[in-house]
Specification:
heterodimer, A: Aldehyde Oxidoreductase, domain 4, Aldehyde Oxidoreductase, domain 4, B: alpha+beta, DNA polymerase, domain 1, Uridine Diphospho-n-acetylenolpyruvylglucosamine Reductase, domain 3, Enolase-like, domain 1, 5-stranded mixed sheet
Chain lengths: 751, 495
């Protein structure tokens, strides 16, 4: 196949960040990351970098069967057990649960083993080698039970939802064309580059933990429950955290309990740091899903019916599956207006590692399927995928399947047009002759593909009101301005964004604002650092708190805050204003009937991917991705672009090479040599573009951004592979095996 | 910079361990630790230089990259004995006299830092890349991406990392002062309430015993003559170790527990690339990086350089050796099909003297070699054949840092349009790297083109015995082996 055209993305001019030059101008500028200097010099200290004199090393004894009854924990009498401390379920002072949504996940197995690598016992020793030797000297006596490994065969439902709009049967009956499809997506591993790490330190009457984590207050709650401690006797401190992506949302709670149990037993600090192998084997993954669509359209290309079934594999315990499934179901139709919709979704329990939070939280799975359907409908109708979406995409005033009227901040068409224009998508499409590749004349074929995405910002439904997050801004007696928020910096830039927001609200420079540590004894509960909510929801609270503090101080001094706050601190002492989230006006959700405003607003994305397919081997190289996003007003364009670029690559990996193989409930590729994520050579040129459609119900106009870039690119990549080869890959990832099989199929079908 | 605190490790570790001297960030350091301790543990635990991170412990992620005598390497795969007398540069040593390195400034300015855990490894890898570049040599994005392909980053999508390296290469960064400690907590600026006071501020080890090491560290002996090396080997109990990229990975995976290492890195006889008696002679300790850079290799057998560029990524190429690749004898070992196709011979030395074994008979069974337990691989001889063409193609699940799913090397000569002296060798399609002689016979005397390609691919299918494993399937390997051979033969017709 001849080269069709020049690359769509020119080598970018590097736009570098800089500090704002005057007060009140920080928001919207590429302010440099506050934690950057410490990170480039090696001074930043992550959990495993902290030396704690006298600390012992903790290790975990894990199950090796997917389902079994635990009959006993046998210790090899040849080992000198006096050198170590062993903790089992019987030693847990409080409840044997990792508190989260349901109380079904034990801290340690007491009776029934529910999945491979489930924690059964804990060992601490003065050094790691001794702890490992003790672990090797323990054997579990078990009686095997039949495992359930297929979510479709599972009879235990963790959660189920049905969303109905109009009459889907009537809609399908009226359709000129029905396109059906089933799409399977597997576990995706987070591969945060810093494995899980926790240090617990006994304190009089309580415990303090320091760790790599996203949600200090989740850990705090879980520790108090399992250890039967008063909340004030538990302190959780987030240390510098080397990536999370959801993988450090719920998982660290259990690890913190483990470390704390050992620390309290030993009477010394205990360090638990997973190596990469243990991290992959023992921690949560993105939910696998099987999604089936029947899409009814008219000959003219109107969308008249969507019948969707979503089945997610929750794994052995509830973790966050009800809300992951909920988000998946709410996004399952894609950003498309349709009169007749029925979405049935269920999360089923299996004897595999519990699935958990991962960037996008259920939406990347279901949106992949929705976008595949849109592209296949366009293919079947012979119209451009862009034209189809111009017809289908939500406009302001449209109603979603839950009856939510999209009253403001709807930018689906804007991101579509921006991505299409920036990638020259339609010209690229016109140049495509999929059949040409079957001549086997050349070894490679190029294709382009398009997808749209949408992402509800903040917690689903009444989640934000239920959380009632608090954030504050204080002026210390020493004259320092501090933002107090339980939101954590995990690389996304929360510290920098909060400082920008507070600085502008106070009328001071960014450098005058400090961010308090994410230490539960210092900061209020701002809710978890998840769901693309920190900038939008907590950032809004920071702005309001800062404005409140400014009013208070200015009232006392009669001067602008910037000029008077230091003196006010000297004369009046410390001041602090906290703001509690109290709902977005006009946003209502009926959780009982699953109707209403599922999210206060949505963010939007459009992605165009360009791929090269090796027709001999089925190897896919994603050459470029243009992703246009609307995350509302952008507080920091440098950080925002970083979020979009990084999320795009995670989605490209999901689409192409990231495949967790599971055999009998065991993760087979449990090392970084076998679970592969893209290197710099695999990564496409990525171009992030922004539409800024502000959200009016927060003072700074920002919407969620972090997860959105994960939603659309996978389907765009698969569409590009189709464009190159004529073959539709349904299941992710598009491994060379799958792509070659599809190419061979196409070759056989050709004369 | 506070990172230099405690750089001298005097007497911290249990007595009896030998003293090893090396230079870290320009300062002499003496460490008393077993020679088999990972350089990563020496830096982080013994010296308190925690800027170097551990992401995987098996050379896959590059988070622990440091510069060792000018080359980026993964500190998790370097035993202390091999750092002795050498210069180590870590992220803490990049800033000089209170000024950030241009790469550090560029990473900040371009937004190349997010969670930061991969940043130190990326910075030192990029530093080594820029330092190794001849002055005036242009830096391309493709070159940058290849240079950092051994450094995984899960946050940035690499976009701004590449931008930053280009900025620094072009000298387009503004100088920045090394910052004081951040005021945002956690860290030195904050003392948590009820806090951990001085305990959380850059001390070195948790315990007086130095407890953070992986397991009990093996000892190591580093002989400087072949006679000593052979005597030590014959005495037993020591495992030969060259670049460590297999041996130390096995230790991390706990598939091997070695009591001690026989360090081969100090043997001058194993080094060097020469032309002798019409053959290219590669010392067994020649690294893949050296193969890539050697003008002699480029002249005599450029396919070796092509192959070397597909081994792991930069940090692995600078450590892994041709002799180690042969000794490990993985059916997927990248160099092995090439050596088979080039009619290479392996020179080994033992108490019974030296012998030369053709590569084609060096790999009798899965992960077995013709090497006796008391023998060492000394060199590899690749005959110089004028007019020979050789190609190498590796199919893997990603473009760098990946083990072969299928690899193939084909060598031939042409006489009046017909192929002769054809060699076809493959990796990862049988328990050993193999030469497919029936396929060679099909190609011998043939004229390259569609017809010959088709017959060769058919013959190949009957000669290989691939399996399903974690990386791919037997069916895929079988199909692809034929298709890439087909492609090579068809492409040859167009040359």
């Amino acid at each position: 196949m001849a080269a069709r055209r020049a690359p769509t993305v020119a080598v970018p001019v590097v736009e570098t960040g800089s500090p704002p030059t005057r007060t009140g101008s920080a928001v919207g500028r590429p302010v440099l990351r506050r934690d950057g200097p410490a990170k480039v010099t090696g001074a930043a200290r992550y959990t495993d970098d902290l030396a704690v004199p006298g600390a012992w090393h903790g290790v975990t004894v894990r199950s090796t069967e997917p389902h079994a009854r635990l009959l006993g924990i046998d210790r090899d009498p040849a080992f000198d057990w006096s050198r170590v401390v062993v903790v089992t379920a019987a030693d847990i002072p409080g409840e044997n649960v990792v508190a989260l949504m349901a109380d079904d996940q034990p801290v340690l197995v007491s009776d029934e083993i529910s999945h491979i690598a489930q924690p059964v016992a804990l060992i601490a020793a003065p050094d790691r080698a001794t702890a490992e030797a003790a672990r090797a000297a323990i054997s579990l006596r078990t009686e095997a039970l039949p495992p359930v490994l297929d979510p479709l065969a599972s009879e235990r439902t963790i959660a189920a939802y049905e969303i109905v709009r109009g009459d889907v049967e009537a809609g399908l009956a009226d359709a000129d064309l029905i396109v059906e499809g089933t799409y399977r997506v597997g576990h995706q591993e987070h591969v945060y580059l810093e494995p899980q790490a926790m240090i617990a330190i006994p304190r009089p009457g309580g415990v303090e933990v320091h760790g790599s984590l996203q949600c200090p207050h989740y850990v705090h709650t879980a520790l108090a429950r399992a250890l039967a401690l008063e909340p004030e006797s538990v302190v959780v401190v987030q240390e510098e955290t080397g990536g999370g992506f959801g993988g450090k949302e719920e998982y660290p709670s259990g690890l913190a309990i483990h470390a704390a149990l050992l620390a309290l037993r030993v009477g010394r600090p205990v360090r638990m740091v997973y190596d990469r192998h243990e991290d992959i084997v023992a921690t949560t993954k993105r939910h696998p899903a099987i999604i089936t669509h029947r899409t009814g359209v008219t000959r003219a290309g109107d969308l008249v019916a969507q019948e969707i079934e979503v089945v997610m594999d929750a794994g052995a315990f509830t973790t966050l599956s009800p809300v992951v499934l909920s988000r998946g179901a709410l996004h399952a139709g894609g950003p498309y207006r349709c009169r007749n919709v029925r979405i049935r979704a269920r999360a089923m329990a299996t004897n595999t590692q519990p699935s958990g939070a991962f960037r996008g939280f259920g939406a990347p799975q279901t949106e992949y399927a929705a976008e595949m359907q849109a592209n296949r409908v366009a293919d079947a109708l012979g119209i451009s995928p862009a034209t189809l979406r111009r017809r289908w995409a939500y406009r302001q005033g449209d109603e979603t399947p839950t009856g939510q009227v999209l009253a403001t901040s709807v930018a689906a068409v804007d991101v579509l047009e921006m991505a299409v224009a920036a990638s020259d998508f339609e010209r690229a499409c016109a140049g495509t002759v999929a059949s040409a590749v079957r001549e086997h004349a050349g070894a490679r074929a190029r294709g382009v593909g398009l997808a749209l995405g949408w992402h509800g910002a903040g917690f689903t439904g009444s989640g934000e009101s239920y959380l009632a997050s608090v954030a504050g801004v204080e002026l210390t007696a020493e004259g320092e301005i501090r933002v107090l928020a339980g939101s954590t910096e995990i690389g996304q830039g929360a510290r920098t964004v909060f400082a920008q927001l507070a600085a502008d609200a106070l009328g001071v420079t960014v450098d005058e604002v400090a961010i308090a540590p994410a230490d539960t004894s210092v900061v209020p509960n701002s809710g978890p650092t998840v769901a693309s909510r920190s900038t939008m929801v907590v950032g809004g609270l920071v702005v309001r708190a800062a404005l409140g503090l400014r009013r208070e101080v200015e009232a006392r001094t009669g001067r602008p805050f910037a000029e008077g706050y230091r003196e006010d601190a000297r004369t009046h002492g410390a001041s602090r204003v906290d703001e509690r989230f109290a709902g977005f006006p006009g946003i209502t959700w009926d959780a009982e009937r699953y109707r209403g405003d599922a999210y206060p607003c949505f963010s939007w994305s459009g992605a165009v991917a360009e791929v090269d397919v090796d027709l001999d081997t089925g190897e896919v190289h994603v050459v470029s991705v243009v992703q246009a996003v609307d995350g509302g007003r952008i507080v920091n364009p440098l950080l925002a672009a970083g979020q979009v670029e990084g999320g795009t690559l995670q989605a490209v990996g999901y689409a192409t090479i990231e495949e967790m193989k599971v055999d009998g409930g065991r993760f087979v590729n449990d090392r970084l040599a076998t679970y592969l994520v893209p290197t710099a050579l695999d990564a496409p040129r990525i171009r992030a573009l922004f539409v800024e459609e502000p959200f009016a119900l927060v003072p700074h106009g920002a919407k969620g951004l972090g997860e959105l870039p994960m939603d659309a690119p996978a389907a765009a990549v698969i569409a590009a592979i189709h464009d190159a080869t004529g073959a539709w890959i349904h299941d992710l990832p598009a491994t060379p095996e799958r792509v070659l099989a599809a190419i061979l199929e196409a070759e056989r079908a050709a004369p | 910079m506070s990172g230099h605190a405690g750089v001298h490790a005097g007497g911290r570790v249990a007595g009896g361990a030998p003293a090893t001297r090396l230079s870290v960030n320009g300062r002499p350091v003496e460490v008393r630790a077993p020679g088999g301790r990972r350089l990563l543990d020496v830096l982080r635990v013994d010296l308190g230089l925690t800027g170097t991170k551990e992401g995987c412990g098996e050379g896959e992620c590059g988070a622990c990259a440091v510069i060792l005598d000018g080359r980026a390497v993964n500190a998790c795969l370097v035993p202390l004995c091999q750092a002795a007398g050498r210069e180590v540069l870590t992220v803490e040593g990049l800033a000089v006299d209170g000024r950030l390195d241009a790469l550090q400034s560029a990473m900040l300015a371009a937004g190349g830092v997010q969670c930061g855990i991969c940043t130190p490894g990326l910075l030192v890898t990029a530093r080594a890349f820029l330092d190794a570049r001849a002055s005036g040599q242009p830096v391309t994005d493709a070159g940058i991406r290849e240079a950092i392909a051994g450094n995984l980053c899960r946050c940035t999508g690499y976009v701004r990392v590449v931008d930053a390296i280009r900025l620094a290469a072009d000298g387009r960064t503004s100088p920045m002062a090394a910052p004081a400690a951040t005021r945002d907590g956690p860290g030195p600026g904050w003392v948590p309430v009820g806090g951990v006071d001085t305990t959380i501020a850059g001390a070195t080890t948790d315990t007086a015993e130095g407890g953070a090491a992986l397991d009990a560290d093996p000892d190591a002996v580093s002989p400087s003559t072949l006679d000593d090396a052979l005597a030590l080997l014959a005495a037993g109990g020591l495992r030969p170790l060259a670049g460590g990229t297999d041996v130390l990975v096995e230790r991390m995976a706990r598939t091997a527990t070695d009591a001690g290492y026989l360090d081969l890195s100090r043997l001058p006889d194993l080094r060097g690339i020469d032309l002798e008696d019409g053959a290219l002679v590669l010392g067994a300790a020649t690294t893949f990086g050296e193969l890539r850079r050697s003008p002699l290799v480029a002249d005599v057998a450029p396919v070796l350089a092509t192959m070397a560029a597909h081994v792991g990524a930069a940090q692995v190429q600078e450590r892994a050796t041709i002799g180690g690749n042969i000794a490990t004898a993985s059916p997927a070992g990248d160099s092995l099909p090439v050596l088979l196709a080039l009619d290479a011979a392996i020179v080994v030395l033992g108490p019974r003297g030296e012998r030369t074994v053709p590569a084609a008979s060096f790999f009798p069974a899965y992960r077995r070699t013709a090497l006796a337990p008391d023998e060492l691989i000394i060199s590899v001889r690749v005959p110089r054949v004028d007019g020979r063409t050789a190609v190498f193609r590796k199919v893997a699940r990603r473009r760098a840092q990946a083990i072969s799913v299928v690899s193939i090397a084909v060598a031939w000569q042409v006489d009046e349009g017909r192929w002769h002296d054809v060699r076809v060798a493959l990796g990862a399609v049988a328990p050993t790297p193999i030469r497919t002689r029936a396929t060679e016979r099909v190609l011998e005397g043939g004229t390259p083109g569609e017809a010959l390609a088709g017959r060769a691919a058919d013959a190949l299918a009957g000669e290989i015995a691939p399996i399903d494993d974690v990386r791919s399937t037997a069916a895929y390997r079988r199909a692809v082996a034929g298709r890439i051979l087909h492609r090579i033969v068809v492409d040859a017709a167009r040359r």
